[in-house]
Specification:
The protein has one helix at 2-17; strands at residues 20-27, 34-44, 49-58, 67-71, 76-79, 84-89, 92-102, 105-110, 115-126, 131-142. By secondary structure, it is mainly β. The strands form three sheets. A four-stranded antiparallel β-sheet has the order 5-6-7-8, with no helix packed on it. A three-stranded antiparallel β-sheet has the order 1-10-9, with no helix packed on it. The longest helix is centred in the first third of the chain and has 16 residues, at 2-17. The radius of gyration is 19 Å and the shape is globular. The chain starts with a helix and ends with a strand.
Length: 143
């Protein structure tokens, strides 16, 4: 019985630190129609900064280049001490990615503790003349 209660309390405490941040939320027409959203972490070691790079892959025109967007996440930084991308959530530090220097340059590898989800959805919008449907994309980082 004590084991079950301890496991339940551990699960509830982990839930307390679980969270999400909306990284991007916009109409797809602003991106000229997209088929995929790719995401990766980027850093500036000298300034101790980290952010997320979003790459929007075009859906229909192969000649179009992908659109890129840098997004600063509140509480996210580069930790020189840990050599990692971290996010501070309510005093708890979560390591999102490790940073390693190789002979090819710097590699940033996600730890799996900060994951991304992409959702495509539609909203009704009254533009003053008619009600139109707008397709949107939302990218969320979960930790």
């Amino acid at each position: 019985m004590k084991t079950i209660i301890a496991a339940l309390m551990l699960a509830l405490s982990l839930q307390a630190f679980a969270g999400e941040v909306v990284v991007f939320d916009a109409p797809t027409y602003e991106l000229r129609g997209i088929s995929d959203v790719k995401h990766d972490f980027a850093i500036n070691k000298e300034l101790g900064r980290a952010w997320v790079n979003l790459t929007f892959v075009p859906a229909y025109n192969e000649d179009m280049s992908a659109t890129e967007e840098r997004v600063k996440i509140p509480g996210m930084s580069f930790s020189a001490e840990k050599n990692a991308v971290v996010i501070n959530v309510s005093g708890e530090e979560i390591v999102c990615a490790t940073v390693k220097k190789t002979f090819l340059g710097t590699t940033i590898r996600p730890t799996g503790k900060c994951t991304f989800s992409t959702k495509y959805y539609s909203v009704k919008h009254d533009n003053g003349y008619e009600v139109e449907t707008i397709d949107k994309v939302k990218v969320t980082m979960n930790f």
